[in-house]
DNA sequence: TAAAACATACTACCGGGTATGATGTTTCGG
DNA sequence: CCGAAACATCATACCCGGTAGTATGTTTTA
């Protein structure tokens, strides 16, 4: 039987779990179901990263789990739903890493630096997720047949906008407290995000990669965009 | 009849036309054929941008030309071949705009600034091409069944590497002449390219958009990455 | 007039989605 | 405490729409 009232977390917006505020451990049962879904999501992220959104088939995802399509379709209505779940998870990772840093009692320039560092780390640490969502967004929006899909996508895109707005906020604060010299806040934000998101394109995970390398990348990248290249 | 010895420019690597050094106007015949192909390539770029690589069907491309699949398949062996052509064209645009600027007799920092500006302009002016190729690259490489396809893709990727190397060259020169302060040249190059390529993600073409807006974007973006955000 | 440049009609196949069955696992009345 | 219904979780088998590619016919051009 199709699990109709399966945890609808990733199918529709649930107000009480915005950005991972999830109250876990209430019961053992839903937690396990959550884990099963999460496992699928992770497999999907890997497949999306390797083969792209369309080339990655549902069977691929299932194979990656040592399972069949039946399992995936039991937890997700459609392939789009799976992608949406990956997308939301990627954004949750970003928010959890960056948003707390905004409250620090520092000059805006220093806060921005730490936020940039954190964002870079998230890009590298959750690479499969971030690569997946970078591909098709408004593309998917055009392709989405059902209105429900488009609604979910709009919500996700708005989530992304909220996230990028965090950086613009700090940029504006830096303009105010004088620690930053920004003429065009939106454009500066685009430049910052662009330089960091570029990681998703060129960064490659190697098994023997020490943590220090990622630290160096995050630090150098953030320093470059903050201090510039000119001497 | 299938045009077997159709201008194989976009099917296989031809040594004599590296980076748009094409000697045009030799005969009238190939020039016209070239134009026909170019028209298809442009239509494909538009469709790839709108619907994504896979969702864009060959019929879509043909429809965009007011033609049918027959025309496309007469000039290109496969859908992959069309994508490869779009890819190469995109890179040619980049080379033509940026490479000449390297010879200018200026401090490296200033040359880099102009190169960045030029690159930004290319991103905006040839948006459909640039968006198309940003999607599937090594993704396509994995998906490519035939060895011939993979060979072409490797060549294209190497073309891209050569292009990005231009910026690293200037960065190294700036390190030498003291106009730039760069500790990690490759990383600095990634940051620069990333910030500029981000354009492809967020820039939207509007019909009433004055040229001055693109100029402002290119200038501000380049200035931001060169001079940094900190005051 | 022959070849190039298309259009038309058709096939083969892949992949998303579904219907159904098999196997645990929880729940609950007695 | 027990046994069966209800349910959750997956596997299997199948359908079917869409699309890349082909084979062939038709028109245009040099």
What does this structure look like?
Chains A, B: Residues 34-94 form the HTH tetR-type domain. Chains A, B: Residues 57-76 bind DNA. Chains A, B: Pfam families: TetR_C_24, TetR_N. Chains A, B: InterPro entries: DNA-bd_HTH_TetR-type_CS, Homeodomain-like_sf, HTH-type_TetR-like_transc_reg, HTH_TetR, KstR2_TetR_C, Tet_transcr_reg_TetR-rel_C_sf. Two copies of one chain form a homodimer. With 231 residues, the first copy, chain A, is an all-alpha fold. Chain A has two domains: 27-76, Arc Repressor Mutant, subunit A (Orthogonal Bundle); 82-231, Tetracycline Repressor, domain 2, CATH 1.10.357.10. Chain A is 68% helix and 0% strand. Chain A has helices at residues 28-51, 58-64, 69-75, 79-98, 108-125, 127-135, 138-143, 147-177, 185-202, 211-227. In chain A, helix 4 (79-98) crosses helix 6 (127-135). The radius of gyration of chain A is 19 Å and the shape is globular. The model of chain A is unreliable at 4-29 (pLDDT under 50). The structure holds a DNA duplex (30 and 30 nucleotides).
Can I get a quick summary?
The first copy, chain A, has helices spanning 28-51, 58-64, 69-75, 79-98, 108-125, 127-135, 138-143, 147-177, 185-202, 211-227. With 231 residues, chain A is mainly α.
């Amino acid at each position: 039987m199709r699990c109709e009232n399966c945890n609808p977390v990733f199918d529709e917006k649930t107000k009480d779990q915005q950005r991972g505020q999830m109250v876990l451990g209430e019961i053992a049962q839903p937690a396990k179901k959550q884990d099963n879904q999460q496992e699928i999501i992770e497999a999907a992220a890997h497949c999306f990263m390797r083969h792209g959104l369309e080339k990655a088939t549902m069977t691929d995802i299932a194979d990656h789990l040592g399972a069949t399509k039946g399992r995936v379709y039991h937890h997700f209505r459609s392939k789009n739903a799976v992608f949406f779940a990956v997308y939301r998870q990627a954004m949750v990772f970003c928010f959890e890493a960056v948003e707390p840093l905004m409250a620090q009692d520092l000059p805006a320039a220093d806060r921005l630096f730490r936020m940039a560092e954190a964002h870079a780390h998230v890009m590298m640490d959750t690479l499969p997720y971030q690569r997946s969502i970078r591909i098709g967004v408004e593309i998917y929006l055009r392709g989405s047949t059902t209105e429900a899909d488009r609604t979910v996508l709009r919500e996700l895109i708005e989530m992304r906008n909220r996230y990028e707005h965090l950086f613009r906020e700090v940029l504006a604060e830096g303009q105010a407290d004088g620690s930053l010299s920004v003429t065009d806040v939106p454009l500066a934000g685009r430049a910052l995000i662009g330089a960091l998101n570029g990681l998703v394109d060129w960064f490659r995970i190697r098994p023997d990669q020490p943590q220090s390398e990622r630290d160096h990348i995050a630090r150098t990248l953030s320093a470059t965009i903050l201090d510039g290249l000119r001497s």
